[in-house]
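Quiz preparation item.
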């Protein structure tokens, strides 16, 4: 297992706070009510995570998965908030009638498969961590999260968001927060926090691409496609291909993600804009992956994985620090004169992140 820095699990959600804040201010109680409850619940959970971490209250799993397969358990919260809930499906059991349970089970498996088969990583901690998930969390809960120990999915309010197991990349996104937790442990604030979010978007997208057998050219490069309800004007939560274009809706507003450093957003909200400025390293990965073509997890994904797990990425790394390490990783893995190095260097240049 690769570890780095102080081990500090954090509470990470997939829906950016600025979206929930906007919904909470809506005049329609059907929209504002669930959003306000979600914000309050997230605040409580974030505080609980901090206390659990500070006082060392987390319990290590008693079992580990076999080296070549996942060890998944799905729980049902029954629209309550007690975790993990009632066990409804365990590893190897056949699908049941609850589609949400089945999607969560499959998504955990797809995540395990990418990390094992593409990067020889045994579960998200590299050491056989069981993969647990809880579905049907709370009433109208508009989020999904990794709490440092397990995945949790809400069913959405049905007005703006639908079931959060609907997007496999969301499942991969949240579980990748666990990979980051066990490796670079990027501080969840400012540029390190935006890199933390970007790592989850990158590998969440790669998990979807791997499960569908898609090349970089065939992928949609969307995060959360399928999460927005039919009446919402938008395609996803974020776009790696074109940050700032994922949605433009009367209720949600316009996607605020920048694609380059010229548009970098300076804010004290959302831990310094971690869900917003992640669009910049996201776009750099997209540019590198599509320039190289083929399956994105094989070259650009391998480079990003090498940096995340290599031990040189500091927990307070800035975009420039990460970019320099990707250039180094490309050179070490693929050679000094290869197309991989050129693609990575050009990608960071295009988004305005200085390497030299």
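Solution:
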């Amino acid at each position: 297992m690769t570890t780095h820095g102080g081990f500090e699990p954090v509470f990470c959600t997939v829906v950016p706070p600025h979206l929930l804040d906007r919904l909470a201010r809506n005049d329609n109680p059907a929209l504002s009510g669930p959003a306000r409850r979600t914000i309050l619940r997230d605040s409580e959970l974030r505080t609980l995570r901090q206390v659990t971490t500070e006082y060392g209250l987390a319990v290590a799993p008693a079992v580990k998965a076999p080296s070549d397969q996942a060890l998944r358990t799905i729980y049902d919260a029954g629209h309550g908030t007690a975790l993990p809930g009632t066990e409804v499906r365990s590893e190897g059991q056949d699908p049941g009638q609850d589609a949400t349970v089945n999607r969560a089970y499959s998504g955990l498996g797809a995540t395990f498969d990418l990390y094992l088969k593409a990067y020889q990583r045994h579960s998200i901690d590299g050491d056989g961590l069981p993969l647990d998930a809880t579905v049907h969390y709370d009433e109208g809960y508009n989020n999904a999260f990794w709490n440092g120990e397990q995945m949790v999915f809400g069913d959405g309010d049905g007005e703006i968001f639908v079931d959060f197991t609907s997007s496999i990349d969301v499942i991969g996104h949240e579980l990748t927060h666990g990979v980051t937790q066990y490796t670079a442990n990027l501080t969840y604030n400012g540029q390190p926090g935006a890199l933390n979010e970007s790592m989850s978007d990158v590998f969440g997208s790669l998990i979807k691409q791997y499960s569908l057998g898609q090349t970089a050219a065939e992928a949609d490069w969307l995060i959360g496609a399928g999460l927005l309800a039919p009446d919402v004007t938008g395609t996803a939560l974020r776009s790696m291909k074109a940050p700032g274009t994922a949605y433009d809706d009367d209720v949600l507003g316009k996607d605020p993600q920048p694609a380059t450093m010229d548009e970098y957003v300076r804010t004290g909200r959302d831990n310094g804009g971690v869900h917003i400025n992640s669009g910049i390293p996201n776009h750099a990965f997209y540019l590198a992956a599509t320039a190289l073509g083929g399956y994105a997890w094989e070259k650009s994904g391998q480079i990003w994985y090498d940096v995340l797990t290599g031990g040189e990425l500091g927990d307070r790394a800035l975009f420039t620090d990460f970019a320099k390490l990707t250039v180094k990783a490309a050179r070490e893995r693929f050679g000094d004169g290869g197309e991989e190095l050129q693609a990575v260097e050009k990608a960071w240049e295009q988004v305005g992140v200085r390497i030299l």
